[in-house]
């Protein structure tokens, strides 16, 4: 790790980080603000009750909107949050590694006594800190938002924190493959393209797997299966297995990225 | 200090370097010349540990350039051929980053270099001109007073005054005992600061010569306009080789003995006198034509 590089990288990414954190929090508040109106609407709950179970699974409503956690799990964490955080981790991971290699200024970093592995680990730390900060700010914003905007709504803070924590770990893994691809792809565009395509495939596979029992096996092909907001809300998720598995996967991907970067040949 | 032993590096497009053996001795300044695509930058990138040779070995101070790159970087200053900086920083922030990564405490040398190259280091990098970026890269490469300097076309983008300043800086580094490998397109600057010069063509080292030998073998063409046409024959009688004569104007080829030429011209009525630098190819063509003739005779 290089403290000087860490400081500079954080400074260079602070604006993006802040934009995503504030944007995510604002979006979450909008959903929380809308909750009291939706919860009062018996028509919506009745409509949801009449819909087939498979369809409810896809749209993320298995239990209606009678509780804030279920509502946020379905409305926000099922799609909006995944899209925002995916964009954040993929753009950040490629800007940390593929961008300086592609632009050539990686030579400025590698012509100092800081080794390639140290450079990769420092940039990894910047990415991890960014994800942790966005997730932590969203969690805090969610808790405060419910407290301020929907104080009467039934809300389980512990389950909400668990849901955010698992989301954070899953996005570290997404960042892990984004970072690894940044270290092996020939240029930044390829790294962004493959990382984004892989993320879309993971998301689509999970969505399709919920359509029918015949294709439910497909969920095992998707990383996004690890993050089940409804399962966490209802306490069905195996957090003691999922969390260590996600941490191990992210660690392996970041380690692979550092080793690949150490062996990479660069025309800098 | 810098050793390349039978180093080969081939790229998919067929370019690269082949079986290159080269040594830069401790305290020596070696000019590394050749046309675009000859393999100059590839050689320097191998020395910096950015590229791994397909075959052969590259070392600096006995350390392997690929395996021990971080230890080599601690004592090396590098100026890349294509300069690029992190976005969103100003010059000083960038220098602070490099200094921090080098664990460099003092800023005296950095400030002295900024002062010498006369630029405002607080300018945001995205607003810097090409020349200003080149100056910033020079400060980053020189501020830790490295033992070894690897410079890829260091004067490109600098105006003539700053080129002059840079060559003075290089001269000081030489006096300090730094070992310098510098690629260039321009023979005059190499001639001025280098002890030896290597010529690379199509990835192969075509020549490695002492600058002194090249200089003494170098011919120069003077274009002289005489007021009196009879002076043309005076120059010819003095034994100088007139390559072209256009009335009062003649091209005279002079090698080494400039005093005799000036003495002859002093006896003539000269209306105009000009000369031009021979480009690298001409210098070497003449040099090799000369040595071959000498061998034959």
From TrEMBL, chain A:
Q: Where in the cell is it found?
A: Membrane
- Report the InterPro entries cross-referenced here: ABC2_TM
Which positions, given as ranges, span the membrane?
17-38, 76-98, 119-145, 165-184, 191-211, 237-261
Plastid in keyword set: no
Pfam families, per this entry?
Answer: ABC2_membrane
Q: Which GO terms describe its cellular component?
A: plasma membrane
Q: Protease: present as a keyword of the record? A: no
ABC-2 type transporter transmembrane domain boundaries: 41-224
Q: Which UniProt keywords apply?
A: Membrane, Transmembrane, Transmembrane helix
Q: How does it sit in the membrane?
A: Multi-pass membrane protein
Q: Which GO MF term does the entry hold, naming one?
A: ABC-type transporter activity
Protein name (Swiss-Prot/TrEMBL): ABC-2 type transport system permease protein
The organism of origin for this protein = Alicyclobacillus macrosporangiidus
Automatic annotation (TrEMBL), chain B:
Q: Where is the ABC transporter domain?
A: 2-227
What molecular function terms (GO) are annotated for this protein? ATP binding; ATP hydrolysis activity
Protein name (Swiss-Prot/TrEMBL): ABC-2 type transport system ATP-binding protein
Q: Which Gene3D superfamilies match?
A: P-loop containing nucleotide triphosphate hydrolases (3.40.50.300)
Q: Per the UniProt entry, what species is this protein from, by scientific name?
A: Alicyclobacillus macrosporangiidus
UniProt KW keywords: ATP-binding, Nucleotide-binding, Transport
In the record, the note on similarity to other proteins reads: Belongs to the ABC transporter superfamily.
Pfam families listed in its UniProt record? ABC_tran
Q: Can the keyword ATP-binding be found in this entry's annotation?
A: yes
